[in-house]
């Protein structure tokens, strides 16, 4: 009888992980909205501040970027945005982790408009704030067609 009671007491004393609440979902959706506002305004420092210090960013057609400083430097190397937005934003989570996805609608100066999709992983800090831990973006452009097979010349 003593062991089950001890186990029950020990398990009952374990800290519970914070739940993912409707307020968390609203906060993460608001982050998507903030990103649109910040990128449109050219405020890339504010955009990069959403990333954790050790975040990983996988931009389309580029190598992985590790760390907020590298992500910010990359963003500042891009042409200015003429238009930028998200569509079909979805967010869900559990405890201290969450993920979001969306379509990305983008037009950079001097380049054709494009669409992409993204998957964003969020992590809640001990102080309760959410940060982007990882983000992967992939283009909606089709893969290039393979080169035609060489034809053999008959001798």
Q: Would you tell me the structural class of the helices and strands?
A: alpha+beta
Global mean pLDDT:
89
What oligomeric state do these chains adopt? single chain
Helix content: 25-40%
**Alpha-carbon Rg, integer:** 22 Å
Number of strands: 6
Number of helices: 4
Query: What overall geometry do the principal axes of the alpha carbons give?
Result: globular
The largest β sheet comes out as: 6 strands, mixed
List the secondary-structure elements in sequence, H or E: HHHEEHEEEE
Strand fraction band?
A: 35-45%
The largest beta-sheet arranges its strands as: 2-1-6-5-4-3
Structure description:
- There is one protein chain.
- The chain is α+β, with helices and mostly antiparallel strands and about 160 residues long.
- About 30% of the residues lie in helices and about 35% in strands.
- The protein has helices at about 1-10, 20-40, 45-50, 70-75, and strands at about 50-60, 65, 80-95, 95-110, 115-125, 130-140.
- The protein has a six-stranded mixed beta sheet with strand order 2-1-6-5-4-3, with helices on one face.
- The longest helix is centred in the N-terminal third of the chain and has 19 residues, at about 20-40.
- The termini are far apart.
- The model has no long low-confidence stretch (mean pLDDT about 90).
Keywords:
155 residues, alpha+beta, six-stranded mixed beta sheet, globular
């Amino acid at each position: 009888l003593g062991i089950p009671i001890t186990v029950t007491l020990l398990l009952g004393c374990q800290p519970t992980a914070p739940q993912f609440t409707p307020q968390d979902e609203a906060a993460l959706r608001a982050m998507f909205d903030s990103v649109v506002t910040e990128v449109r305004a050219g405020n890339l420092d504010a955009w990069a501040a959403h990333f954790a210090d050790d975040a990983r960013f996988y931009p389309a057609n580029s190598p992985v970027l590790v760390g907020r400083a590298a992500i910010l430097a990359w963003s500042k190397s891009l042409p200015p945005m003429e238009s930028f937005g998200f569509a079909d934003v979805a967010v869900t989570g559990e405890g201290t982790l969450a993920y979001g996805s969306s379509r990305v609608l983008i037009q950079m100066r001097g380049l054709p408009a494009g669409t992409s999709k993204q998957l964003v992983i969020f992590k809640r800090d001990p102080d309760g704030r959410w940060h982007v831990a990882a983000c992967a973006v992939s283009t909606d452009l089709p893969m290039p067609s393979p080169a035609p097979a060489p034809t053999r010349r008959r001798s």
